[in-house]
Design a protein that fits this description.
By secondary structure, this protein is α/β, with parallel strands linked by helices. It has one domain: Rossmann fold (3-Layer(aba) Sandwich). It is 31% helix and 19% strand. The chain has five helices and seven strands; from the N terminus they run E-H-E-H-E-H-E-H-E-E-E-H. The radius of gyration is 16 Å and the shape is globular.
């Protein structure tokens, strides 16, 4: 493990959703070796996911949690990872992500994003959340930025772009946002959960 990231060994990070954002955040964090990752998703791997998510063709049909556990353990076999095959809601979020220092919001739908952010901020007073808004399409890499919304809420994205006709989700732009998320999480943890420098 790289010495500069030694402090991460006691960190607990939650990832809500294992699609284009969550599967990429999980891989980026696994390569740094946090103390524990807690993953949650209710969905299975579909062929249409392969254009931007960290899965393989032979994993189509597997539950995303199971496929992610396999892939992350290939990167770091000793990593402590907990997987929950569950649809997250305000009642189970505090239990699923109990003990997390930071939760990454990696949902597709805006209502689910809002629900997770509100639940973490109101019911998990010691936990940071890093969410995303605006990452559809291609190009404009530098429009994706990381901003502090409140003391415990960091937001990644351009805040505007949404999927629609001719504006798909692409691996490159989703990957940029996911790595912004992972970097923000690392910054929070490396600053001992004080103010990140962005």
């Amino acid at each position: 493990m790289t010495p500069v990231f030694f402090e991460l060994k006691n960190a607990v990070v939650g990832i809500a959703g294992l699609g284009g954002l969550g599967s990429n955040v999980a891989v980026a964090l696994t390569r740094l070796g946090p103390g524990r990752l807690i993953l949650a998703d209710f969905d299975g791997v579909e062929e249409s996911n392969l254009n931007r998510q960290q899965f393989f063709r032979d994993q189509v049909g597997m539950h995303k949690v199971d496929a992610t556990l396999v892939n992350l353990h290939r990167i770091q076999p000793e990593l402590d990872i907990v997987g929950h095959k569950v649809r997250l809601d305000p009642d189970n979020i505090p239990r699923v992500f109990e003990g997390c220092d930071v939760v990454a919001e990696c949902f597709d739908r805006s209502d689910q994003k809002q629900m997770l952010v509100e639940t973490v901020l109101t019911r998990m007073p010691e936990t940071f959340i890093v969410s995303v808004s605006g990452l559809a399409g291609y190009g404009r890499s530098n429009d994706i930025v990381t901003r502090r919304i409140s003391k415990r809420h960091i937001l990644v994205g351009d805040g505007e772009s949404a999927t629609g006709p001719g504006v798909p989700l692409t691996a490159a732009r989703v990957g940029i946002a996911a790595h912004h998320q992972a970097n923000a999480i690392i910054e929070i943890l490396m600053n001992e959960f004080n103010q990140p420098r962005f």
